[in-house]
Amino acid sequence: MYNAIFQSLGDYIGAGGWVMPPLVLATVVLWFALGYRFAALKKGTVRNVRNLVRRSESGKMPHGNGVLVRALNKGLELKRSGQPYLRARLDDAFFDEEREIRKYHVLIMTIVLSAPLLGLLGTVIGMIETFDSLADMSLFSQSGGIAGGISQALITTQMGLAVAIPGLIVNGILFRTQKNMEMELAQLKDILCSEPLSQGLEGLQTPETAGV
How far is C-alpha 210 from the chain's CA centre? Predict the structure, then answer.
């Protein structure tokens, strides 16, 4: 059973010519990058930012290990340290999280945009070979005739679209999640730089929160 599946897969890749191996490699890289982004875009909590900060100030820290929870831990540590220029320090502290949620987005978009073009290139190459074979009528000796040769030439376009369309849809969903998370990180900075919200942070005003 598995031998038949691998044989069919090998025949399909071979029918597309030299363009198919790069497309297969692009598929593997694409879904690895999508899987990485899916794992990286975890908040670690289902609560909104303001509620999360209030609960953490009262000692109810979330147990997750998502982006928002890690940023909150760093932010509260800086807040309690009473260091000046808190907003700039928060920007530096959150840099790793902000970079993590953007990672591989450009790579994914590059693969999604280039895969159909690579597939089209394979189709053009296949069509040229098909029409060249008409000169000596060699194509009629193959099973399927001209139609079979053209269908083989179109395999690469089919593969390119099969790579691009699911990747575009999934990455669109992940990109929206990324934007929402960036907004939550910015909101977290604003809350931490504002006046203390509870007794847990009373007396820890920085020059920024004190109006200096």
Answer: 40
pTM score, whole prediction = 0.76
Q: What is the 3-state secondary structure (H, E, C) of the chain?
A: CHHHHHHHHHHHHHHCHHHHHHHHHHHHHHHHHHHHHHHHCCCCCCCCHHHHHHHHHCCCCCCCCCHHHHHHHHHHHHHHHCCCCHHHHHHHHCHHHHHHHHCCHHHHHHHHHHHHHHHHHHHHHHHHHHHHHCCCCHHHHCCCHHHHHHHHHCHHHHHHHHHHHHHHHHHHHHHHHHHHHHHHHHHHHHHHHCCCCCHHHCCCCCCCCCCC
pLDDT digits (tens, 9 = 90+) for 68-97: 888 888 888 888 777 788 888 888 888 888
d(Cα 152, Cα 126) in Å, to the nearest integer? 7
129 contacts 136 by C-beta, under 8 angstroms? no
Is the predicted pLDDT of residue 63 greater than 60, yes or no?
A: yes
Per the listing, tokens 């198919």 go with 20
